[in-house]
Specification:
The complex is a heterodimer of chains A (456) and B (455). Chain A has 456 residues and is mostly helical. Chain A contains 20 helices and no strands. The chains are: A mainly alpha (456), B mainly alpha (455).
Chain lengths: 456, 455
Amino acid sequence: MSEASAAPKSATARAVQAAALIVVFAVVFIASRLVHQAASVVGTIVGLGFLLLAGTLTSELMEVFGLPHLSGYLLAGLIAGPSVLGLIDAGTLTRLAPVNALALSLIALAGGAELEIGMLKASAKSIAWATLLQHTIVLVITAVVFAALVPFTALSTLGTGAIVGAALLWGLISVTRSPAALLGIIAQVRPAGPLTTFSIAFVMLSNLVCVLLTALMIPLVRPLFDSGEALSFSDLTQLGYDMVGSVSVGVCVGLALIVYLRLIGKNRLLMLLGLGVGLSELLRYIRFDALLAFLVAGFFVRNFSQQGPRLLEAVQRTGALVFVVFFALAGAKVDLSLLRSVGLVALALCLVRFLATYGAARLSSRAAHDRPVIHAWGWSPLVSQAGLSLGIIVVVMRAFPGLGAEFTTLSIACVTINEIVGPILFKLGLDRAGESGKAAEEGSGATSTPTPTSDA
Amino acid sequence: MSPFVLLTALLALAFIGSMLVSGHSIRGFGLPSGSEFLVLGVLVGPRFLGVVTRESLEGFEALTLAALAWLTFAFGSDYGYVGRKRVSLDRMLTGLGLSALTGLCTAGPAVVLAFALTDLAARDVLVLGLGVAAVSAETTRHAMRWVAQRYSADGPLTKLLADLSEADDALPILMLAVVAAILPQEAALALPGLPWSGLAATVGIGGALGATCAALFDIEPRYSQRWGILLGTGLLCIGVSLRLGLSAPSATFIMGIVATALAKERGALQSLLGSTERASMLPALVLAGVHIVIPPLMPFALIAVSVLGARVLAKLLSGRVVSGMLEPKTRRSPSLGLGLLPAGVLSIVVGLAFVIRFPGQASEWILALAALNALAGELLGTVFLRRELRAAGEISPLSVAPSSRPPPRPTAEEERAAARLIRTTTGRSVSTRPPPSLIRTTTGRLRPAPAKRKP
């Protein structure tokens, strides 16, 4: 995520950026054509540097067209990825996976630190209605339409029970949102206002709801796939243990962060890198939910100490580098041939999801008597999908391997479309709501522009 | 030790390194060559405690080279500058010439003895000769900074030595490029017209990405974006050089020089890269220590003694040249050259690059010699350097190493001297006006201001 745009750049500056982008692409293109078989770690280093630079430059050039930086990162990754130029190979994408873990931990930490109890209380009614309606209406509508569209897909060979199960799982994937895209756009445009507050609070809470829904849905759906399987909630018990453990770890990490920020406060970039890499790995090993733990840690620091703004500033700085790579990697993973193969059905399903989300947002804001700005644009942050959605697809496929590659292909194609379109819509919403750039003007804590310190 | 734990440990070291550089503690602790971290590496390495084994280092070679290359990127961005002041061309050329002289003097006996006493192949002897020259050439600028900071040294000799030690950094790093071009790896791209094409490619990649870095840096005022530009161009330069089988440390060094030369916002660029220097230095030193293999006594001892002896002679000769550059009124002694003995991070980094690039006995000896140079420089060099500067009257006779007792508050004269020193070494102006919490006594010393009475 990049800092808020400074003064508009001149045409010369844009020309320099375009020329630099060409140089970067040319250098990597020539190197990759001259030496085809790159050593593993070397390929990763090239990939990392290239994605960072090309992502940053493309995002800058996207500003000219009023598009969000995230779209630039995605586009750079897409062009460099195996689908188009092949400058970044599939092996490199796999080896750069730790960047995803680091980015997700930082996203969760920032997400938690954006949640202020006072803010939650103030918009409790809106959030409650939105949570209820978004997670029921969208789930049901998308599930029904999916079931109706199954005959036009390779999933038509499934039995009736399995189709119902698959449809419910589709509904589950459809209600997931992208906290990463949300925070990415917020970091770029520095908004402030009711739409921003609502978006942060809802998407972060939705994150939690989706994790719970996944754990609930899997045992519920299992008998539909296998008639011999009884309804078992042992997964829920396990989930309970995991959640309590994750929350406990999150509180401990939050406490440690408070102590660190208060007593030492320096080298926050390195500290966050170490924490993100080390703790994610540890939590994965003990099978706790890293996303939840980091979310709780951020929430704890924000609401039980004075260190929230410092933590946010540090995360934004570290994230500025990590998120470029994260989204560029996401772009590189886009499989264009896959999109072509299921394009029409995927588009139809995305459209239905969008309409359901839009309708549910209008209904919930009417029920909660929201301000006009939320009534008009409250749907805009809810379209994006990214890492969390892909994570839930992996969990679903692990639990139901019988769904086959077709389901995975279709769901990844839909997430890809929403990943590209969602950030553009959210930026549009913030611009139209008049909230873009407000935080930078006010210099408010949560999204204030960091000033250079010894943090580097 | 698993690679993950090793990586975390290296991150922790980087953290400690950046803590040291960001605080005032650097002045009171540590050795100028960083030998303590080298020794730490030897201790935790396979030879002693075995915490880090050879197996756990496998797969880390490219990553280690990348870290070394980042360090040389930082060196390159600072090359030719003492603080914010540019070193004059004649001093740059003299520094380079003296380091070349030392390199030649040390490589000669190493090659002769290797041919006479060992059964190393001709290629390995060539590696040994070039490597010994590369790790013996420099006088570490860190020693100069360390003495200047710790003993408040200032004067023409201090400045001359600082300039020369700054200038001689280029030779060892550029020698890596030469070696990579002369002796390409088997898996590397077979460039037509080697070694010149290899050298040209190294310079071309470093130059092109350095210019790109400078152009982007100047038009981008945002802090995070600037970091993205530096990291992106740096990693790209490292990765592409390694992929083509070129010397990544040399390419990034050139990139640093070009970026600094072309950037209008040179100070900001140097400051950002400088903040990473110590953070990458400590892990590099520890990794170098881990890679050190203590060679069998003979014939290594003979080669080591001859190389160290040749280095002392070469530096004594260099001392004569330095004496000739000083104004006649400046006091100097015949042993001035011994003050040029300190070697440090750069030599060790170059030695480690040799070990990774050309695994084998010759490279192991090069790294061991780099460590010995650092230790000898630590034991003799800093002592003589201090003595020469004191003899030249550039260290106050009252100036002693910091003790455990808190130092007395400075007088106005001392503060002005410190401000002058900071101005000459960093180019920054410092106010000597006391802060509101302090008042100046009649003797010129500062003491806390009396608390204001509450109304």
